[in-house]
Amino acid sequence: MDYIWEGIRQAFFIILRLDKEFAWIVFVSIRVAFTSTLLATLVGCPLGVMLARKRFRGRQALLTIVNTLMSLPTVVVGLMLYSVLSRRGPLGSLGLLYTLTAMILGQFILVLPIVIGLVASAIRGLDERVNRTALSLGASSWQAFFALLREARHGLLAAVIAGFGRVFAEVGISMMLGGNIRGYTRNITTTIALETSKGEFALGIALGLVLLTVAFGVNLLLASFQKRIRRVGI
Predict the structure, then answer these.
(1) CA distance 40 to 35
(2) Which of 95, 108, 112, 180 is 20 to 30 A from residue 13's alpha carbon, by CA?
(3) Crossing angle of helices 20-53/141-151, nearest 10°?
(4) How many Å apart are CA 168 and CA 193, to the nearest integer?
(5) Which tens digits make up the pLDDT trace of 103-141?
(6) Angle at CA of residue 186, ends 183 and 192, nearest 5°
(7) Phi-psi label, residue 25: left if phi above 0, alpha if psi -120 to 50, beta otherwise
C-alpha cells in the first residue's frame, strides 16, 4: 500500500507545481477533444435536424444506423482510420498518421453519430407548431430553422456535452492514430496506460484526477441540461 500513497502524494505535487509535461498532456487532450467536438457539432447539428424533420425513404433505417454507431468502439474507429492513413493505405501519402490531425479525425468520427442522434431526438421532441408558427409569421426557412434550434437549445447543448465527454476519455483512437509520442500526441488516457505499464503511478494518478474532475464536471452539466429539457418538455 505504501507505493499507492506515495504515488498520490507525488501526484498532488505534480498538479500543484504544474509540471510542464503534465500541463502539455492535459492541453493536448483538451485541444483534440474540443476541436473534434466542435467539428462534429457543426456537421452533426444540421444532419440531426434533417433526420428529425425531413421525411424521405430510408429515414428510419438511417436513424437506426446512427443510433447503432453511437456506441461504436474506439478501437474499431482507430483500426479503420489506421488502415486508411498508414503508409500502405490510400491516404498514406498525406503523412497524417501519428499526428494530432489524425486523432482529431478519429474522435470526430466517434462523436459525430452521438451529436446527430441526440440532436435528432431533441428536435423530434419539439412541438410541430414551432416551425409552422415561425413560417406563418413571415420568417424565412433559415429563420425558422434557427428558431427551431433555439427551442431545442438545451437538448443541443446536452448532445455537445455528451459528445465531448465521450471523446475526452477515449484511449483506443488516441493510441492507434496518435502513437503516444512524448511532447506531441501523448494525451491523458495514453499517458495513464503507459505510466501504469511502467509501474510509475504518480503522473498517471495526477492525470487520472484531472480526467475524473473533467468527467464529473461534464456529467454535472449534462444532468443540469437534462433536467431543463424535462422541465420544458423537450
Answers:
(1) 9
(2) 180
(3) 120
(4) 15
(5) 999 999 999 999 999 999 888 877 666 666 666 666 666
(6) 125
(7) alpha
Instruction: Tell which residue, 51, 29, 44, has the closest CA to residue 110.
Output: 44
Side chain identity at residue 230, one-letter code: R
Cβ atoms of 36 and 28 closer than 8 Å? no
* Residue 226: CB atoms within 10 Å: 16
Q: How confident is the model at residue 58 (pLDDT cuts 50, 70, 90)?
A: confident
Residue type, position 167, single letter: V
% residues pLDDT > 70 (the chain) = 86
The values of phi and psi at residue 82, to 5°, are: -60, -45
Give the pTM: 0.86
pLDDT number for residue 150: 76
Nearest to 98 by CA among 21, 180, 27: 180
Tell me which residue has cell 493510441: 175
The DSSP code for 92 is G
Domains of the chain are 2-232 (1.10.3720.10)
Q: Is 31 exposed, middle or buried (0-12, 13-18, 19+ CB in 10 A)?
A: middle
